[in-house]
């Protein structure tokens, strides 16, 4: 009865694929346990080599700090399960090696800390730096948006004002002011004929004098009336 309870626990603890591989009819809990152990420990040295290569070549690129450090922790835990544990200082230095260039200012701060940073404390420091960068970028974008919007609204009235002044200058012709001397000569010419053209002091050409009507002559009939 006890052996069946352990078998049930083992079958429910592993995945379906592993259970299908190790399940044998009428087997004991000890036999199933050894089969599971062999599945996980088989070729463990080769698995460790590939995991260590991935761990040492992992770089952040477009990942955020949480995703990058999470993947490093998974690889370190997998190496520990294969009896190839990674030291704490090696985890920290490898994390600094693969950081994005925008965090290069944090590398000497973490690397020269005494006592040395742990993996989790270095991760917390980088998360704080990432949060600061996000807030700084948002503030810079807001300032650029305000500056762009202010320049657009400020230039619109001036352009309208320039257009209005130019249109008004085109629609209204310039007027030539008349001097007092011209007005005086005009009055003289009309009053007593003192102008050069017999009373047309304003400069207009004189009209041709009309033919006087001779008394006793009817212009319509060309007859002399007595």
Automatic annotation (TrEMBL):
Residue spans with biased composition (Gly residues)? 191-202
What segments bear the compositional bias annotation Low complexity?
154-179
Annotated region Disordered: the residues are 148-226
Q: Name one Pfam family in it.
A: Retrotran_gag_2
Q: Tell me the PANTHER family matching this sequence.
A: OS01G0873500 PROTEIN, PTHR47481
Name under which the protein is recorded: Retrotransposon gag domain-containing protein
Whose protein is this, by species? Miscanthus lutarioriparius
């Amino acid at each position: 009865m006890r052996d069946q309870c352990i078998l049930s626990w083992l079958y429910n603890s592993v995945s379906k694929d592993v259970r299908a591989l190790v399940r044998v009819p009428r087997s004991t809990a000890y036999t199933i346990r050894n089969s599971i152990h062999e599945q996980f420990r088989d070729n463990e040295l080769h698995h460790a080599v590939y995991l260590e290569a991935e761990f040492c070549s992992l770089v952040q690129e477009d990942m955020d700090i949480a995703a990058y450090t999470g993947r490093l922790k998974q690889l370190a835990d997998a190496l520990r399960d294969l009896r190839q544990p990674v030291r704490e200082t090696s985890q920290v230095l490898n994390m600094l090696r693969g950081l994005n260039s925008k965090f290069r200012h944090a590398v000497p701060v973490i690397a020269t800390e005494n006592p040395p940073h742990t993996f989790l404390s270095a991760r917390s420091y980088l998360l704080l730096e990432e949060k600061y960068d996000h807030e700084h970028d948002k503030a810079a974008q807001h300032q650029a948006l305000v500056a762009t919007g202010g320049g657009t609204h400020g230039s619109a009235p001036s352009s309208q004002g320039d257009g209005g002044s130019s249109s008004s200058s085109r629609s209204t012709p310039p007027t030539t002011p008349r001097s007092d001397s011209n007005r005086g000569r005009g009055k003289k010419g009309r009053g007593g004929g003192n102008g050069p053209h017999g009373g047309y002091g304003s400069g207009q050409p004189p009209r041709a004098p009309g033919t006087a009507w001779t008394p006793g002559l009817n212009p319509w009939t060309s007859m002399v009336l007595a």
